[in-house]
Amino acid sequence: MAIKQLTVFVENKQGTVVSITDTLSKHNINLRALSIAETQDFGILRLIVNDEAEAERILTEEGYLIKITDVVGVKIGDAPGKLTEALKVLNESKINIEYLYAFMARTEKHAYVVIRVEDNATAESTLENAGFHLITKEDICKI
Fold first, then answer.
1. How far, in Å, CA of 5 to CA of 116, rounded?
2. CA distance 112 to 105
3. pTM for the full model?
4. pLDDT in tens, 14-39
C-alpha cells in the first residue's frame, strides 16, 4: 500500500525549483506534498503528486535525474501529540524513520504525513494495527 515519491536531484541555484513546479503545473500535475533538502551545490526535492508516472516522464524529458521511492503515508489527528503517537508506534516496533514531511493539505481534523522507513510493509502493518489510516494513491487524488 506504499505511495510513490519522486526524488528529483536539482542544482542548487536560483529558479530551479520554480522551473520544476511550473513545468509540472503546465502539465496538470498537482503537488500534494513536497520537501527540499539542500547542500551548497545541489538539492534533493521530494514530491508526492497526483500522477507520478506522468511527472517522472515530464521531468526526465526536461533532463532531471529522478528516482521513484516507496514511502508510507499516514493520516493522523490534527492535535498536539498525535504525530508523536504514530512515531512511538514505529519506535516501539524498532522501525527507524529515515525522514518525514507533511502533506500540503489537511482537513479540519486530520493531517497527512509522509514517512520513509527501510521496510514499508512492516511500518504499514504496525501503524494499521495501532489504528492509523494509511494513505493510498486514491486518497492522494482526492486531497
1. 10
2. 7
3. 0.84
4. 888 899 999 999 999 999 999 998 77
